[in-house]
Amino acid sequence: MNDSNWKKLIGLRMFKPVHFSSNFLNKFLAKSLMEKWKRAVSGLHHTKLAFDELSARLNPEWLKRWEELEAKAVKERGSLLQIYDVSLPNGMFYINFRLHFN
Asked: Where are the domains of the chain?
C-alpha cells in the first residue's frame, strides 16, 4: 500500500508532513483503530440480518455447492476466483436488476 493510501486509511491525511513523536502516533492510531472497530461492530448486526435472510431464501443444495466452490477457489486461486464476479442476465445493468428484483 503506498504512503498516501495508508495515511487515508489511518486518518493522517489531515496533517501536514511533519515529524510526529511515537507517543502521539501511538495514541492517534489507537484512537483511529478504535473508531473503525466501533463502526464495524455496529454494522455487523445489520450485515448478519441481511446474510441470514439471503441464506434462508436459497436452495440448501445450491448453497452447499457454492460453499464447495468457494473453498476450492480459496485453496487453488487463479481463474476459480471468478465465482466472486457478479453475473447479471445479458443486457441488464445493475440498476435495472435492482429495480426489477426489489
From this structure: 21-56, 58-102
